Amino acid sequence: MKFKTRKEGFYQMLMLFFCLFVIGTLIIGFRSDIFLSDILVIMGSFVLIVALMSLLVAYTYYRIENGFFFYRSGFLSGKIAIERIREIVVGKTLWAGNKPAMASKGLIIKYDKYEELYISPYTNEQFVTEILKHKPDIKIVRY
Asked: How many C-beta atoms surround the C-beta of residue 119 within 10 A?
């Protein structure tokens, strides 16, 4: 089963800012004495940033399949055997560490002895229900 990520307004606002900055740079650049090469370098940098952010937004998802939990966020991807998951914390945000997520108040998946992964599926409850079908003894902590 595939789960899309929940996206908060921060990423959309940041992308909008960069797009407006590129447009503003074009307008100001063509109306002033700034060299065209300087405008193109600035614009190219921001277009690259917007493209990378769009990649993150488009390619962040989670999948449960054949006893494994797969995650992907842009270039970051991995898989965890569901049998290794020992606890899921619902509704809390992990501020540091492995975070293939685009929203706060998601899920912290604790596996092995000390490993943690933060994700933000579109609906936390649907994800928890689905993963419990594969391993019902996972400890669920709700905030």
From this structure: 27
pLDDT band at residue 33 using 50, 70 and 90 as cut-offs: low
- Whole-model pTM: value is 0.80
Residue written as token pair 């937004």: 57
Q: Report pLDDT digits (tens) over 63-97.
A: 999 999 999 998 889 999 999 999 999 999 888 87
Rg of the chain taking only CA atoms, in angstroms: 20
Crossing angle (nearest 10°) for helices 36-58 and 9-30: 160
Instruction: Note the pLDDT of residue 77.
Output: 92
Q: What b/e sequence results for 14-50 when a residue is b if at least 16 CB atoms lie within 10 Å of its CB, and e otherwise?
A: ebeebeeebeebeeebeeeeeeeeebeebbeebeeeb
How far is residue 130's CA from residue 50's CA, in Å, rounded to a whole number?
34
Average pLDDT over every residue of 28-50? 73
